[in-house]
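[audit] Reproducing an earlier prediction to check determinism. Same input, same settings, fresh worker. If the tokens differ from the archived copy the diff job will pick it up downstream; this log only records the rerun itself.
[audit] input (313 residues):
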Amino acid sequence: MSELSHNPIPHKQIHPGLQFLILVGLLLGFLIFGQLLAGVIIGVKYGQDVLLDIANLKLSSPQAQSALWIMQTTGTTIPILITPIVFSYFIVREPDEYLKNNVHFPWILAFLVFFIMLFSLPVIEFLGNLNQKFPLSKALRDYESEVQKMSDSMLQMNSFWSMVFDLLFIGLLTAIIEEVLFRGAMQTVFIRWTKNKHVAVWIVAILFSAFHVEFSGFIPRMFLGLLFGYFTVWSGSIWPAIWAHFVNNGTIVVITYLAQQKIVNVDPNDQHSFNNVIYIVSGLIMIVLLYFSRYIAVKRQIADHGEELGSDF
């Protein structure tokens, strides 16, 4: 009996297909609850008229702006953050594997990832222009136009400190919560389900782009999802992907702020800032940097695990 008492029964692993359904169910449940809670908070604090203003996208008043941030934080940000934590700790009970919150990776990756993301900007623009050629229904275009109004409203920055706030909230916090959900929990589920890291990275990149419900930017966002996915697979850590995501989002915030303050003469929404030569050169440089990133990251994983992992990447 004494020997048995020191050998607890191992936790039975749930089939990855069922894991995915549970993860999606948790996400939907927390999002619905968060939206309802946000509505109650806004209704109590500002009144029902402000709720109607948000629903009708009348965002000119300060109360509507504040209410929109409450809706974003309580109704979206917190639910997305809670979902993978609950899933990893209480459902599959493998937080280290599903959250990948470790910092044991070559720190030179942070340097390489930064420049990969900078050189990806022309590539993203090219893919965005390609995406625009796909036909969308008028209803879908109208919907995306309304969503863009909300995004533009949250990116209105009247001071340096409002830019810092957006940089931390839209840049950093969004990067953390989305990467922990998609590249941490969800990508791990699909790696175990498909037993193929490449297939898992592509599936999650597609789901990541679809989650944003913005089909006019589906292809460039999927491309970003692929980069984030491979950064995580190669390094075994979520942090290179979070850093890459932050660099991408943060660049948009900073450029938007500088344009709003007339410091630079740049239109953040302009999809024709680069030419074909820059598209090609930046793409080639990015490929070279990706090769070195993969080589350095996988080499560290092989050294740490003492096994041949390279063929899996």
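[audit] rerun output stored. Observation attached for the diff report: The chain is about 75% helix and 0% strand.
[audit] end
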